[in-house]
Write a structure and sequence with these properties.
Layout: H1 11-19, E1 45-55, H2 66-83, E2 87-97, H3 103-120, E3 123-131, E4 137-147, E5 162-166, H4 171-179, H5 192-199, E6 218-221, H6 225-236, E7 239-243, H7 251-259, H8 263-269, E8 275-280, H9 285-295, E9 299-306, E10 310-314
Parallel strand pairs: 2-3, 7-10
Antiparallel strand pairs: 1-4, 2-4, 5-8, 5-9, 6-8, 7-9
Helix pairs in contact: 2-3, 4-5
The structure holds adenosine-5'-diphosphate (ADP) and magnesium ion.
């Protein structure tokens, strides 16, 4: 970083003040005072790596609280690790900052990271900081570990598997609509829980590692339940049926759908769920339920894997549905 914007510390001061405290729990980060960090997996484990970039004005508005931007940046990567059955270890943080980002913003951003580091037991290993004349660009690379060769894959679903999803679906996509003022208003309907879920996803870090051994295929639901299920079906060379009525909805999502039943399409195809979609054979059902109990994360059976290809969404009578609003068609 060369020229130092007004209201912001120089690069070294900024790292020392805001980021070095986030690296204290990781001895191999050397207090962010060296060129690189050193890290090894635990015995019998291997690294699982994932990275995400968000751009102001594209992936977030810029008017959000810096703490919620930090939380979302970290949590979407933690959700990827969870879906792969990996336990979080460390993360790298690359920041391209315009002059408008000052120390106050960075302080609140770092405080958001600090809070989540405690919740999810992860620490900062390093990163890079540059100035830009464009919008803020934030990249986070998360490093986790899973037993060697056992990372949960998208391509391992088998005919006869049960299809499961963690938590609830639709809250994030409905929350985005609510934040834009595009959900129906009605007395007694409170959309604040949906907006909160959109801004503060809840990665299922406790559940994911417990699915290794029981689950066949797994993936993070970030682009919408049905679209992401199509990825599992395609990668595994199988077909999937989803029972619309079995989709787990939060109270707020159920209230929104009751006001406008067409919102069910948003629930099934909207994004930002950050739940784990996974398959397991019927004999692993009790192991899956134990993993759910142990992690305190609800798990619901929402369908089955069959021979064939594509995804069908079935109504309460088992009839295939088209989901027209978003262009999703069964058998597409
Ligand atoms: P380089 O000259 O190799 O780019 P830097 O001076 O940028 O090195 O970085 C010095 C140290 O500070 C390194 O340990 C690096 O990982 C760390 N660092 C720089 N920026 C960040 C950041 N945004 N978050 C965490 N660590 C950072
Ligand atoms: Mg640098």
């Amino acid at each position: 970083m060369t020229d130092k914007p007004a209201g912001r510390s120089g690069e070294f001061a900024l790292i020392e003040r805001f980021f070095a405290p986030l690296a204290v729990a990781l001895p191999g980060a050397f207090g962010l005072k060296d060129d690189a960090a050193a890290l090894g997996p635990s015995e019998g484990m291997e690294f699982v790596l994932t990275t995400d970039t968000i751009v102001e004005g594209v992936h977030y508005r810029g008017s959000e609280s810096p703490g919620s931007v930090a939380a979302k940046l970290l949590r979407v990567s933690l959700s990827d690790l969870a879906a792969k059955g990996a336990r979080p270890l460390a993360y790298m943080l690359n920041l391209a900052l315009p002059k408008t980002v000052d120390d106050a913003w960075l302080e609140a951003f770092a405080a958001g990271l600090a809070a989540d580091q405690r919740t999810y037991e992860i620490a900062l290993a390093g990163g890079d900081t540059v100035s830009t004349s464009g919008p803020t660009v934030l990249t986070l690379t998360a490093i986790g570990e899973a037993p060697v060769g056992r990372m949960l894959r998208r391509n391992a679903a088998r005919p006869g598997d049960i299809l499961f999803v963690s938590g609830t679906v639709g809250d994030g996509a409905l929350g985005l609509l609510a934040a834009d003022g595009r959900l129906p208003a009605a007395p007694g309907f409170d959309s604040s829980a949906l907006v909160r879920r959109y801004e503060w996803p809840e990665p299922r870090v406790g559940l994911g590692p417990l699915l290794i051994g029981g689950a066949h295929a797994a993936m993070d639901v970030s682009d919408g339940l049905i679209g992401d299920l199509e990825h599992i079906a395609a990668a595994s060379g199988v077909a999937a049926d989803v029972h619309c009525a079995a989709a787990p909805l939060s109270d707020a999502a159920a209230a929104a759908v009751a006001l406008d039943p067409t919102l069910m399409t948003v629930v099934l195809t909207g994004g930002d769920d950050y739940e784990i979609l996974f398959t397991a054979p019927p004999e692993a059902r009790s192991a899956v339920m134990r993993a759910s109990d142990e992690s305190g994360v609800k798990v619901s059976e929402i369908g089955e894997i069959r021979e064939g290809e594509g995804v069908r969404v079935l109504d309460a009578d088992g009839r295939p549905l088209d989901l027209p609003q978003t262009g999703y068609r069964h058998g597409r």
